[in-house]
Structure formats: structure tokens, C-alpha cells
Amino acid sequence: MGGYILRRILLMIPTIVGIMAISFAVIQFAPGGPVEQVIAQLTGQGDSADQRLSGGGDMLGGGLDDEGGGKYRGAQGLDPDLIKKLEKQFGFDKPPLTRFGEMMWNYIRFDFGESFFRNTSVIDLIIDKLPVSISLGVWILLLSYAISIPLGIKKAVNDGATFDVWTSGIIVIGYAVPSFLFGILLIVVFAGGSFFNWFPLRGLTSDDFWSLPWYKQILDYFWHLTLPLIALSLSAFATTTLLTKNSFIDEIKKQYVVTARAKGLNDRQVLYGHVFRNAMLIVIAGFPGAFIGAFFTGSLLIENIFSLDGLGRLGYLSIVNRDYPVVFGTLYIFSLMGLFVNLASDLIYTWIDPRIDFERRDV
């Protein structure tokens, strides 16, 4: 097993380099980069330039000129020296391959640099946004698995019965309704929209959170999380429920189950003593995808709808604002975590079923 783990870790190196290289190449052709973003501010097409330039007024020393702006759209009339200063500030005065090599060397040392427009380091930004994403990701993952696995087992045992039919209908409808649309409905009904004002609409905690007793802090925390978690959970458990059901049905039909029953074991002993371990393997295989989805991507729209300042919203705003250090830094961290979570999933496989031996298989 040690050799297999080592090979998988070594394979992560070209994988992460490939992910970053493709993303870096795509970004080179994307219009509206950070230099153009600043030019838009200087020409009066956006917010104050002081919010965009880390150098403040010093960066504007060239002023305006009748010279053309060159390769940047909207730069006509700006001093070419100013354009060069902007390129140097954002690191675009170097060839793309040099910039990519320097970026990867820094990332290997977990040096992600500073945000172009926020005047803070990328890692500090990520740490600042983590509590929201951890809250949404961990709770929705635990909630969805706590619902889907028992429900899937119950549906497998009662396959074709009334319970199975009506719960399947609810699951299909819930899966078909987008979580963000359901979130908007919850806001309209329960968050001061047109009906009730029972739940807060913004933030993870109240303004007086730290002055509350510990038990009220817990209540306040879940009070803020109630609507986002309900919106996310509507479709979160659908896939896992049906996957669990089908996996258990397949295992129940196998010969070893018939043999176990012939030996006098009751249904509960057969189900949890023999079927459970084998049936749960395929469910565990989907855990890494569910983890990454719930933790990073699944909450993007929900964070924006409920004004929760988490990693999803950070990534979205960074892409819109072309804040490349934040975009690439978060991509690198998320990709690395995804690779390690997949490795952990394989190790859990061997823990649940010792018959699985990845050491004898080609990676």
C-alpha cells in the first residue's frame, strides 16, 4: 500500500501542473484583464481608480497623452509609460512562460502572492472566507448523507412498495428544482419578502454574536444557516439516495445473501452484517465528488443569494474582476485538495473491504 500511495502522490505533480497550465493558457485569451480593468477606471468606465491601483496616485504620474494605448482596448490617450507601469505592477511585463514558471515555483512553496485589488494576501483572503464555506459544505454533506443513506436502504428494502414510489416522486421533483430558485422562494416567504420575516438574510452570525452566551451563539449560528441549508439540501441527497438504493438492491439479489438467510439470519442481520459493507462501496466512491461539490462549487449561487461571503463568492468576484492571483491560488488549493480527497477515498475502500488491493493494480 505504501508504494501505491507514493505513486499516487507522484502522479499528482503532473496532474496539478496540467490543470494550472490549461487554466493559465485559457486566461491568456480572455479579454478584460486587470490592466484593462484599471484602464476602464481611469477613463471613467468603472469605480474609482484608487480602489484598483495598489500604488494609489503614484501610478498615475504619466497622466494623459495623445499617444495611442497600444494593445489595450480603451487605452487611447493614456501615457504609454503609465501602461508599462501597470503591466509591471500586475506582472505582465514578462513572457507568459516565465510568468507561469514563477507562479508554479511560488505555489510549490505555498506562496500565493497578494490580490491585485484587495491589498491583502491570497491565503489571508481564503482563511477569512473559509468559515462560511466550511459551515455550508460540512453541514450540507452531513445532512445529505444522514438523510440519503437511511432513506436509500429503506427504499431498497421496500422496492416497488407505496413508500418507495412516493419518496421517488419527491426526490425527482426536488432534484429538478434548482437550489438557487428554491432559495429565492425561501427568501420571499421566510426572510422578509412578501410574507414572514422569521430568518436573517445576510451573514453567518448576528452583529452582537460575540456578546451572546454560548448557547445563544449556537442558536444564532444555526438560525442564519437554516434557509441556505434547506435550499442546498433540496437536491443534495437525491443522487446519493438513489445510488444507495440501487447498490443495496444489487447486493440483496446475490447468492451470499440467499446463503445467509438459509443459515437462519434475520433480515436485519443480513442487511447490516453482510450487505451493508459491500453495498456502501459504490456510495463511498461518490464521496470525493460530493465533498468537493458541496464544499466549493455547490454553494456559489447560494452564497450570492443569501449574501454569505464564502469561497464560492470570492472565486466568482475574482473571476469577474480578473483578480488572477486569487483565481489561480484558489484553483491550485482546490485542485490539490480534490486529488488528496480522491486518494483518501481509495484508502477508505481498503479499510471497508480488505479484499481490495490497489497495490496489485496499475495506477
Automatic annotation (TrEMBL):
Topology relative to the lipid bilayer, per the entry, is: Multi-pass membrane protein
Q: Where does the chain cross the membrane? A: 9-30, 134-153, 165-191, 221-244, 279-306, 326-352
Where is the protein situated, by its record's location annotation? Cell membrane
Which InterPro entries does the protein's record reference?
Answer: MetI-like, MetI-like_sf
Domain annotation ABC transmembrane type-1: ranges: 130-349
Q: Which keywords label this protein?
A: Cell membrane, Membrane, Transmembrane, Transmembrane helix, Transport
Regarding protein family, the annotation reads: Belongs to the binding-protein-dependent transport system permease family.
Against PANTHER family, the record matches this protein to: INNER MEMBRANE ABC TRANSPORTER (PTHR30465), INNER MEMBRANE ABC TRANSPORTER PERMEASE PROTEIN YEJB (PTHR30465:SF66)
Full protein name: Microcin C transport system permease protein
Task: Report the source organism.
Answer: Rhizobium halophytocola
Classification lineage: Bacteria, Pseudomonadati, Pseudomonadota, Alphaproteobacteria, Hyphomicrobiales
